[in-house]
Each structure stands twice: as C-alpha cells, then as structure tokens.
C-alpha cells in the first residue's frame, strides 16, 4: 500500500478516538487492511508499533489536559485508567517523572517566566517574535549549556553573514526573515549537531531562495558549510543516501516552519501538515530524537 493512502487517515482516526479503548484489530479494520499487514507497514514506516504510538499519543494528550488545569484523576479516567496510581505508573514509565511533579515543575517555570508547558517533552523553544539579537544570545546559551566545542568566532561570523544575506527580507509574520534560519540553528545546537551544520542552519535556504550563490557562500564560510547547503538545496526526504547533518538541518527547518504555521492560510497549513506526516515523520523516526519526533507529530496532527 502507498504510504500517502493510509498515514494521514490513520492518524486522524486515532486522534478522533484517542479517549476510547482502541485495539489493533479496530484500527486495521477501519483502514481496510489485515492486522498482520497493517501492523508491519506501520512499524516499517514509523519505527514503533501502532499500539505504542497510540499509547504515546494518549500520554501527550493527557499531559496537555493536566497542564491546562484538569485534575490528574479526571485525566486518568478520560484516557481509560481506573485509578490515579495506575495512570501515574504508566505516565512515569513513559516520561520519567510523575504527572504531579511535571505540574509542579511547569508551575514553577511559568512563575519564573519560562516557556511552553510542553517544553519538557519537545525541543528548545524561542519566543514567537524574538529579535535576531535575542536569538543569537539564545543560540550561544544553548551551545554553552550543551558544552558544544564550537569556535564561537565562527558562530559570530556566520550570524553576521546571515544578517547580510537576508537583509530586508520579511516572513509572513512580519518578522525579519533571518529569525527563521537562526531558529533552525538553535534547534540544531539543541540536537548536538556539528558546528558546520549550525552555521549552515543560519543560512538554511539562502540557495533555495536565490538570495546567495555558492561562490559567495564559500567565500564567507567554509567548504563544509557550502557543501551542506548544496546538499540541503537538493534534499528529498525519501532519498536513503541523505547525510545525517543534512537530515538534521531539514528537520530543524521543517520544525520551525511548523511552529510558525499560524501565519499561513488554512490550505497551506493542511498541505504542510500532510507533508510533515508523510515525508518528514518517517525520517524523524529513523533519526531517533524523541523530542523532535513528538513535536513534529503533535504539530502536524494539530493542523492536518
């Protein structure tokens, strides 16, 4: 079966019935395939079994309800658990902390001016309308916090070059366009990518948008950065020969685009969500970064 024929309808069905007791037989039957065939196809594409995926989605959705203020016992009942202790045990096994501790942690973080309530599970976040200067400072903070052995002079030069490359260009949101590649660089640093990949992130679509040619990029960065940008410009998610650094760059770029998708039309949102589920989620699963995978999946389902 073709992936595009089942992946979006399957995810939509699971989300619609997420608070019900779903089994493999029911999901496979709804999709019109045998249990054996569908379960193998799902695991081959997504890297986990379908029931593991259902359990994870239930926990993510339960987390959102807990953090919205619902009582933990009410959330437990919503998702099929008969007791507070059974839900807490399953939640702790999934995320490494209890729902009560998570709620306390997030309340404290919010009081101190922290970010998203889901940041414990997802990737490094930034303010929606952060300036380029604020983003550079956050990038440097992530580099130091993760003890990444980068040459900070090279990061500074990459930043200054990116500001020149995207000067005067705006995003749909009205923000300076350079804030997008800077967000990509922050995500790459959060994933522990190499220095060249982070600098390439700051220039992630310079070639694609025709704002800069290969020769100029080479003059202002390095051959490794230039090569990464060339590969990224010709990237296709289904190519098994993609280099890991290029895959990381494109996934970081897609994640930030999904984070800011509210500034696109409804039609564009649906198309980007479908692309994310069918093209980018499989490679995110193979990469094995749980925070990246969960956030991409969560955003794609929200807008599909």
Strand and helix map with partners:
Layout: H1 3-16, H2 24-31, H3 35-46, H4 50-67, H5 72-78, H6 84-95, H7 99-111, H8 132-145, H9 152-165, H10 179-190, H11 195-201, H12 214-220, H13 223-233, H14 244-259, H15 266-287, H16 290-303
Helix pairs in contact: 5-6, 8-10, 9-11, 10-11, 10-14, 11-13, 11-14, 13-14, 14-15, 14-16, 15-16
Structure description:
With 304 residues, this protein is mainly α. It has 2 domains: 3-111, Arc Repressor Mutant, subunit A, CATH 1.10.10.60; 132-303, Hypothetical protein af1432 (Orthogonal Bundle). 66% of the residues lie in helices and 0% in strands. The protein has 16 helices and no strands. The protein has helices spanning 3-16, 24-31, 35-46, 50-67, 72-78, 84-95, 99-111, 132-145, 152-165, 179-190, 195-201, 214-220, 223-233, 244-259, 266-287, 290-303. The chain is globular, with a radius of gyration of 21 Å. The model has no long low-confidence stretch (mean pLDDT 89).
Descriptive labels:
single chain; 304 residues; mainly alpha; Hypothetical protein af1432
Summarize the structure.
The chain is mostly helical and 304 residues long.
Q: Helical residue percent?
A: 55-70%
Radius of gyration: 21 Å
CATH architecture of the largest domain: Orthogonal Bundle
Quote the average pLDDT: 89
Count of individual beta strands: 0
**Binned strand content:** under 5%
CATH fold category name of the largest domain? Hypothetical protein af1432
Q: Unreliable segments (pLDDT under 50, ≥5 consecutive)?
A: none
What coarse outline follows from CA principal-axis ratios?
globular
Q: How many domains would you count in the coordinates? A: 2
Task: List the helices and strands in order.
Answer: HHHHHHHHHHHHHHHH
Question: Which secondary-structure class do the elements indicate?
Answer: mainly alpha
**Fourth CATH level, the homologous superfamily of the largest domain:** Hypothetical protein af1432
- The CATH class label of the largest domain is Mainly Alpha
How many individual helices?
16
The largest β sheet comes out as:
none
Give the CA-CA distance, first to last residue: 21 Å
